[in-house]
Amino acid sequence: MKQKEGKNYESLVNTVSQIMGRDGTSRDQKLQQTCELLAENVEAFDWVGFYLVDPDSERELVLGPYVGEETDHTRIPFGKGICGQAAETNETFMVQDVSKEDNYLACSVQVEAEIVVPVKKDGEFVAELDIDSHKKDSMTEEHRKMLEKICKIVSPLF
Ligand code: SME
What we know:
By secondary structure, the chain is of the alpha+beta class. 32% of the residues lie in helices and 25% in strands. The chain has helices at residues 9-20, 27-41, 81-89, 141-154; strands at 47-53, 60-67, 75-77, 93-95, 113-121, 124-133. Strands 3-2-1-6-5-4 form a six-stranded antiparallel sheet, with helices on both faces. It is globular. The chain starts with 8 loop residues before the first helix and ends with a helix. Bound molecules: methionine sulfoxide. Methionine sulfoxide (SME) is lined by residues 47, 71, 73, 76, 81-84, 104-105, 107, 114, 130, 132.
């Protein structure tokens, strides 16, 4: 059973700051630890991962560190799916019922809700944090606020 959240969102944000300060830890290890922290502590989060802008093609996302089931979507063109749309708009995309979305890429049939939060460097889109939930209507404004703070904290890694 995951820890009860709410009052813990602030402590999760603080823990991500601590992860960023860890010496001798690579960028990918820090992103991986951030994914693990979120997946372990937030009830609604069943798949947590980062997609990074492919430095070679620039209009494509490449799967980075993640926690959860393996996904076929290791590369996603900008504009495709929830992830690709968030990459294009450079804005958070919160979906409470993925079955209502036309432009959606299924990672697993169990997924019912999803949130994608951009990571910006000097305002420019560089990566995104993608989170899936097996429960409809499970993404909240508190989740959004916490994840947007976390994406600001990890931004210097890019
Ligand atoms: N559902 C995402 C694809 C990525 S997987 O969820 C890991 C989308 O529609 O872009």
